[in-house]
Write a structure and sequence with these properties.
The chain has helices spanning 3-7, 24-35, 37-42, 55-65, 78-82, 124-135; strands spanning 12-17, 45-51, 70-73, 86-91, 94-99, 102-107, 112-117. By secondary structure, it is an alpha/beta fold. It has a single domain (3-135), classed as 3-Layer(aba) Sandwich (Glutaredoxin). Helix 4 links the parallel strand 2 and strand 3 (70-73).
Length: 136
């Protein structure tokens, strides 16, 4: 399934770019977003996550944690590039290029209504929910 086809399924889409399936921060955040799916659905917002992991990896990740969000595989990085979410990161003083955790609220015409860049996993889902209530 492509992002274009997914955007047509709901009035709004929350798209979140994350580094890797089944890592501590990504798992915590995926569980947080899954818990809030009903709250987002009341606002006509679907949740889509994007990483460079394979569809097989996504399926294992979803099944292992019973996630209620849609995961898209962007192995070639084209969506990452389109949303400019690859950049310089630092970890324990080491600088490297990687995925910058970022979230975007889009309408079904691809218009970006709000963006959150370089986010922390803890508390992000709740923050996004609070802020989207003010936008839509």
């Amino acid at each position: 399934m492509t992002l274009s086809s997914i955007l047509k399924l709901s009035r709004y889409t929350l798209i979140y770019f994350y580094p890797k399936d089944d890592t501590p921060g990504c798992t915590l955040e995926a569980q947080d977003f899954t818990g809030l799916v009903p709250d987002f659905a009341k606002l006509a917002i679907q949740i889509v996550w994007v990483s460079k992991d394979s569809e097989i990896s996504h399926a294992k990740f979803c099944n292992k944690y019973d996630l209620g969000i849609t995961l898209i595989s962007d192995i070639d990085g084209s969506l990452h590039e389109q949303f400019a979410v690859i950049g310089e990161k630092k970890n324990y003083g080491k600088v490297y290029i990687g995925v910058i955790r970022s979230t975007f609220l889009l309408d079904n015409t691809w218009e970006i209504l709000k963006e959150w860049r370089n986010v922390k996993a803890t508390g992000h889902a709740e923050k996004v929910l609070r802020e989207v209530k003010e936008i839509i």
